[in-house]
Predict the 3D structure of the following.
Amino acid sequence: MNCLLKYIFRFLSLTAVLLAVGCAKTNPDEIPSYIKIDTISINVNSIQGTASQKIVDSWIYADNELIGGFELPSNPPILKSGSTQLDIFAGIMLNGIKETRVPYPFYQKISKTVNLVRDSAINFGHMKFAYIEGTKFAWQESFEQANLSIDSTARSEVNLVRTLLPELATAFPYELNKYAAKVLILSDSLVFECASHDAFKLPTDGSSVFMELNYKTNNPFTVGLMINGSLTSQRSVLVINPSSVWNKIYINFTPTLSANNAASSFRVFFTARKSTKEANAEIYFDNIKLLHF
């Protein structure tokens, strides 16, 4: 009899728990609203150069509160409803590193006031960003003109060549982009180096300075800064790894500039030696932009 009572007690206790769970109400504040972003592009004017971009994330703020960075296409949940101010930033891979993703400081945020509805999505589809007003383009080189603003240096044993590439029409559709720079290194012993003709006065106070670059290469190459001051020196900033297709990278010069705040000006340089893995090193780059505020 005692065993029977125990079984009955356990049954009633379990039934009570199940009824309590079944009757529990979901907290409405825990039901998210959603926005949906499929793709992103960049609008440029006639003096801003290429519209090529490699935006990989959308960074979302709701009523000035960071919701997070979300890989595209994105469908981020937002624990808000009703009229909400959304600020959307275009995110990049800093220095091409997948694990280091940040909003790009030179793309203008898109702000929208929307009416969020819980358990529903607002579809933004395709979003077009633009450069922030006041962005300074200290240097641009598209290689479309015969007179180049960059060339091989005196120590280089390999020439930089402007070359016609039909493949650019596919790599950068809807753009008048026919020429790029080509570097061909045939021997392990040869050094390649090229640098901008001009020296640039760039901010050294910690404000953002970036270089955008399109490239394709079967061989690593280095991008850096020649530093002009009481002494002239060179600082490597980033080694760019091989890419068998045309790629876009955003190179952060800010830390190097801040560490050399006594310098009077800077030139950008590229350098490489042939890897022993390749019979010939072939390096192509295009659409250089040096930007700051």
Observations:
- The domain at 136-292 is CATH 2.60.120.200 (Jelly Rolls).
- The first strand starts at residue 33 and ends at 43.
- Residues 2-23 form the longest helix (22 residues).
- The helical segments are 2-23, 168-171, 254-258.
